């Protein structure tokens, strides 16, 4: 277990107690799944669908991101992801870009942290 990575994730906005409990206290497993997040394509898909104005498929992508961010206790983005999910669920794009922009900044920060520790 890399304590430096753990602290960076906590500082970023991971609720470590929550995610650790979800993984039955197995912190190595938490880190394994955090690193697997690097392979998740939902943000890339969301970016493309929003750029195309495709609310239906953007909803599917953000809904996936909502599930992953919730399961990994990504409190730093979860509220904005949830709000964007609801905007898109309604078939609207009103306010979607603002929420997306907030998510993207934090998402990019998280990816940068994870890549530093990628083997």
Structural class: mainly alpha
Look at the structure and give the CATH class: Mainly Alpha
Distance between the termini: 13 Å
Stretches where pLDDT is under 50 for at least 5 consecutive residues are none
Oligomeric form = single chain
Order of helices and strands: HHHHHHH
CATH topology: Four Helix Bundle (Hemerythrin (Met), subunit A)
Q: Could you give the count of β-strands? A: 0
- The figure for the number of domains is 1
Blueprint (SSEs and pairs):
Elements: H1 3-12, H2 16-22, H3 27-36, H4 42-51, H5 55-71, H6 75-89, H7 96-116
Polypeptide structure, described:
The protein is mainly α and 119 residues long. The chain has one domain: Four Helix Bundle (Hemerythrin (Met), subunit A). The chain contains 7 helices and no strands. The mean pLDDT is 96.
Core attributes:
119 residues, Four Helix Bundle (Hemerythrin (Met), subunit A), mainly alpha
Short description:
With 119 residues, the chain is an all-alpha fold.
